[in-house]
Amino acid sequence: MKNRRIASCAHLVLALGCLVNAARSFAQQPKAGQISGHVVDVVGATVKGASVFVRRNIPAEEKIALLAHTDINGDFKLALPEGGYDVLVTSPGFAARVETVAVPAGKPMRIELKLKALDCSFPRMNCDTLQ
To answer: Reduced to 3 states, what is the DSSP secondary structure of residue 129?
Structure first.
């Protein structure tokens, strides 16, 4: 009988330990957020194929990653952990644009980025080669 009680207590302690570790693991996982965007030029025409890079700034991170390209409608969508981000959009023939965005967990965020066309009269700028 005593051995049964000891075994039963050991199982209970083991189960509680597993439960605590699972709760810690769940709490440490970043909460997911979503950001979508629409990239246009200054007159409102969509910019397809633009590159979308992100760098996490809250908490700070040095890594910059290419995460998406805009589709034919100039749209992109990213699933990111909750936090602050710098979103950089580049496209040939346009000046790059950076937008700082807070990505909340569970609430989709939408931004519109307007890219300004480069001045083709700049020395050594050949706009015929830009796509």
So the answer is: helix
> ω into residue 92 within 30 of 0, thus cis?
no
**CB-CB contact of 105 with 82 (8 Å):** yes
Tell me: the pLDDT tens digits for 91-100?
999 999 999 9
Longest dimension (CA), the chain: 93
Tell me the torsion sign for CA atoms 7, 8, 10, 14.
Answer: positive
Token pair for 100: 């700082």
Model-level pTM? 0.68
What residues pair up with 79 in beta bridges, in sequence order? Answer: 34
- Which string of b and e fits 42-70 if b means at least 16 CB within 10 Å? eeeeebeebbbbbbbeeeeeeeeeebbeb
Q: What are phi and psi of 28, to 5 degrees?
A: -80, -15
In terms of DSSP H, where are the helices of the chain?
A: 2-28
What pLDDT is stored for residue 42 in this prediction? 93
* 16-72: pLDDT as tens digits: 344 444 444 444 556 889 999 999 999 999 999 999 999 998 878 878 888 899 999
